[in-house]
């Protein structure tokens, strides 16, 4: 055993010693609470979310001052209850306060504070802050939705997903925090990853010991999930993104466990990790505590379990329906030895596999949610659908996975693994009078694709799907780099990645754009005439810097633009990035 103390343990000991000596001075356990970003009562920053025309949720964590050696770190259950005051104002100096109140927080909610501020004006910019025991939080900037009766307003937001802390620095979140032209950020899942720092770790080896997960092990209980949320809220780039914009979020699988389904996950072992539903319940509780998420009305719309799916109105322009595709999904189709739990890349064509994939009893969405989705956004030009896993079919030639050329594979964790519901939804989209744009994450790459009526070259496009890149999670380039082996020049790996994506677009002609190299975000801009997606990516890897994710100062830049024109129901190139907004919030 190595007896040399780590830097982390020295900092931890210094923090506790300082707490004991200073009495009322509150410090954090550096290891458990992701210090030094967590500093002061409001060390985890502020956030806002779920903007409506007359309301927005504001959030913070108010950590009680240290009492002796007991530090109220996330998930510890320590710390006394505390009154927190909040204010919402029209100006950053808070001379024009429009709403204020007081809330009591305690260890029962992990000392998180969440207020649904109502009675606000539509399409209006606001500022908010919190106070407790002589300390004041950072000032957050937020706004209500452009849902202003019959008045037409601009709509512009960012689409993001898949932010693995150990995978790299959050350049995309910093870039979003530096923008001033967004109505909100739409995060469609994998806000964090449940993996530990051991054999299940994912990300560049250069960041081991530099950017580690907290807790060090896989998150399986309430304490672990709370700590992982705290780690992300303490990241300065993510904190900036939250402070500057309201977020609309929904979880995918990794906020609980990999490739989760209704009563299990691919990396959950009941014998050693307990009942899956207990684990999921803890994950959901931590998510609702630590995210600026408003649970929708539970009685108004039929649902199963907890209703997380919800919608947002943008006046006469359109609606956004946010799906939830994990809680009630049927277990994925597995074909050993290709996949044994939680689905994955499986070969199609065998009668027994086809029968499972086409089984109408298998569901990604519970029937109540599907009915709700079909009834959403009628009578408006644009129906936007926030969606976790790719809807459009993806046929993968065997050689891309080092398999025989006669094999074609699909990913059974995507909509391809639930063909009856996939076909049902595509048929519904085709029958609609309005324009449908599906907004997706999960696959760690950037796409602009037609939604085909059938997976064949003579398809008819019924709608459009835009897929955002990952913030940091490994994508096509990282997989190609691992396959190529150590020492392969980055330029060779980039060329191999482009060959892979080129093969996929040839095999799937409805895919009009596919980038598997850059990480970042997609900017979505909506007007009555079109919806445009601008893709913003990290730099292309080079031999000088084969993995830009490990550079703290790395940034994103504009890469490509694609659009769908009203009435066209298909993807087409856009001339260039979006220009200034047509109007601004009050």
UniProtKB/TrEMBL annotation:
> The organism sits in which domain of life?
Bacteria
Residue ranges constituting the Phospholipase D N-terminal domain according to the UniProt record: 45-144
The UniProt entry, under InterPro entries, shows: Metallo-depent_PP-like, PhoD-like_MPP, PhoD-like_sf, PhoD_N, Phospholipid_Metab_Enz, TAT_signal
Region span, Disordered:
565-586
Sections of the chain in a coiled coil: none
Return the protein name: Alkaline phosphatase/alkaline phosphatase D
Q: Which part of the chain is the PhoD-like phosphatase metallophosphatase domain?
A: 157-535
Ranked from the top, the taxonomy reads: Bacteria, Bacillati, Actinomycetota, Actinomycetes, Pseudonocardiales
């Amino acid at each position: 055993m190595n007896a040399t103390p780590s830097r982390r343990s020295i900092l931890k000991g210094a923090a506790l010693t300082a707490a004991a000596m200073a009495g009322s001075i509150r410090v954090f356990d550096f290891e458990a609470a992701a210090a030094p970003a967590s500093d002061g009562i409001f060390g985890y920053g502020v956030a806002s979310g779920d903007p409506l025309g007359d309301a927005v949720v504001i959030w913070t964590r108010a950590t009680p001052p240290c009492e002796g050696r007991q530090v109220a770190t996330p998930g510890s259950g320590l710390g006394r209850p505390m009154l927190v005051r909040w204010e919402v104002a029209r100006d950053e100096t808070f001379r024009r306060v429009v709403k204020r109140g007081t809330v009591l927080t305690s260890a029962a909610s992990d000392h998180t504070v969440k207020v649904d501020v109502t009675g606000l004006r539509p399409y209006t910019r606001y500022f908010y802050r919190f106070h407790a025991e002589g300390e004041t939080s950072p000032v957050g900037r937020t706004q209500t939705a452009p849902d202003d009766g019959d008045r037409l307003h601009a709509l512009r937001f960012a689409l993001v997903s898949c932010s693995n802390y150990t995978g790299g620095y959050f350049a995309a979140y910093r870039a979003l925090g530096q923008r001033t032209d967004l109505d909100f950020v739409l995060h469609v899942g994998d806000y964090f990853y449940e993996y530990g720092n051991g054999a299940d770790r994912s990300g560049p080896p250069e960041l081991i010991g530099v950017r580690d997960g907290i807790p060090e092990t896989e998150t399986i209980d309430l304490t672990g999930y709370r700590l992982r949320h705290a780690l992300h809220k303490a990241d300065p780039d993510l904190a900036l993104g939250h402070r500057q914009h309201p977020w609309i979020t929904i979880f995918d699988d990794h906020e609980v466990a990999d490739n989760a389904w209704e009563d299990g996950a691919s990396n959950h072992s009941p014998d050693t990790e307990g009942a899956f539903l207990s684990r999921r319940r803890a994950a959901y509780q931590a998510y609702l505590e630590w995210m600026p998420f408003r649970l929708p009305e539970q009685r108004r719309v039929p649902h199963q379990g907890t209703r997380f799916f919800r919608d947002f109105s943008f006046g006469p322009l359109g609606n956004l329906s946010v799906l939830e595709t994990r809680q009630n999904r049927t277990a994925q189709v597995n074909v050993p030895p290709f996949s044994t739990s939680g689905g994955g890349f499986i070969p199609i064509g065998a009668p027994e596999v086809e029968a499972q994939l086409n089984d109408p009893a298998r569901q990604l969405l519970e029937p109540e949610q599907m009915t709700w989705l079909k009834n959403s956004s009628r009578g408006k030009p644009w129906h936007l659908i926030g969606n976790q896993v790719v809807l459009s079919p993806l046929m993968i030639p065997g050689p891309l996975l080092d398999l025989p050329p006669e094999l074609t594979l699909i990913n059974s964790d995507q909509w391809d693994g639930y063909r009856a519901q996939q076909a049902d939804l595509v048929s519904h989209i085709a029958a609609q009078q309005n324009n449908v744009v599906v907004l997706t994450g999960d696959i760690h790459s950037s796409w602009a694709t037609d939604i085909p009526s059938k997976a064949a070259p003579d398809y008819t496009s019924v709608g459009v799907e835009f897929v955002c890149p990952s913030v940091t999670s490994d994508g096509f380039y990282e997989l190609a780099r691992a396959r190529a082996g150590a020492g392969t020049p980055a330029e060779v790996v980039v060329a191999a990645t482009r060959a892979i994506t080129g093969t996929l677009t040839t095999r799937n002609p409805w895919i009009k754009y596919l980038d598997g190299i850059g990480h970042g975000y997609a900017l979505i801009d909506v007007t009555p005439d079109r919806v445009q997606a601008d893709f913003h990516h990290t730099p292309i890897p080079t031999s000088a810097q084969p993995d830009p994710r490990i550079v703290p100062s790395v940034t994103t830049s504009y890469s490509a633009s694609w659009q769908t024109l009203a009435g066209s129901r298909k993807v087409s190139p856009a001339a260039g990035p979006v220009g200034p907004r047509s109007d601004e919030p009050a």
